[in-house]
Amino acid sequence: MAGTDEELEDLPPSAKLVFKVLEYDGPLTQKQIVQESMLSARTVRYALERLQDIGIVDEDVYFADARQSLYELTEEQAVEADGGPDAKGSDSSDDAEPCRCAE
Known about the structure:
Radius of gyration: 18 Å
Number of strands: 3
Strand order of the largest sheet: 1-3-2
Helix content: 40-55%
Low-confidence stretches: 87-93
Structural class: mainly alpha
CATH architecture: Orthogonal Bundle
Number of helices: 5
Order of helices and strands: HHEHHEEH
CATH superfamily: Winged helix-like DNA-binding domain superfamily/Winged helix DNA-binding domain
Distance between the termini: 45 Å
Number of domains: 1
C-alpha cells in the first residue's frame, strides 16, 4: 500500500475524504458519498475522477437504479483496507504480556 499512500498524498483533501468514505462505507453511489462526506456533488464528482485516474476506485452499474453508478475501492485497495497481506499491524494476542492482576 506504500504506492497508494504516495499517490493519495498528491490528491486534494476532498479526494482523500472520498477515499476514506469508500474505505469505511463503500460501495456507494455518488449521491450517497455526497451525503456521507457532506461535500458538494461537483466536488465529489471531481474527487471520484481523480481516484479513478490513479486506479484506486472502480465504477460499476448500480442495479437498484441504472441511472446511477456504484463506486468502490479496487479489489487490491479493499483487501489492504480490510487487513490483507500488505496491511500493517497484528490483531494477534499471542505476543501480549499475561495479565498480572492483584494476587
